[in-house]
Amino acid sequence: GVYLRVVQLAKGRLDYVTVHARNAGDDSTVDARWSCIRNAKREAGNELLIIGNGDVFSRADARRMMAETECDGVLVARGAIRTAGLVFSSQWNDDSGAVSLEADRLERQYSRLAMRFGNQRPKFAKYHSEAFRRMRE
Predict the structure, then answer these.
(1) How far apart, in whole angstroms, are the C-alpha atoms of residue 83 and residue 136?
(2) Measuring CA to CA, which of 1, 56, 58, 137 is 20 to 30 A from 34?
(3) Which residues are CB-contacts of 20 (< 8 A; sequence separation ≥ 6)?
(4) Are 114 and 121 in contact (CB under 8 A)?
(5) Which residues contact 26 (CB under 8 A, 6 or more apart)?
(6) What is the pLDDT, as a whole number, of residue 128?
(7) Which residues pair with 18 in a beta bridge?
């Protein structure tokens, strides 16, 4: 794939490349293709760090990605939002109850800030309301 050519060109020029294991046309219902991350790391060898991204929602997912792909690090996006950032805590053990409590705390903090600074735009209020709801699922 094109991503392997990018890895070849990046060796000796960049410190790292992040490989998002989906195509541009894929939505999040398509499983991330961790094999692409593994192929990129094999191409990079020790000359370039490869950061894997896609379908990481827990610390266990991150460990599994690193084990299966041999990537050097993991980028967490939706997993950080879905877990209210707890995915980054070494004390968190994938407990959904803790995520719900953290979502409650963050929503209260967001509401206080919105009131303090005023003029909350409806589209942002809707977005944040939906994000807090999803954290509690």
Answers:
(1) 9
(2) 137
(3) 32, 53, 54, 75
(4) no
(5) none
(6) 87
(7) 51
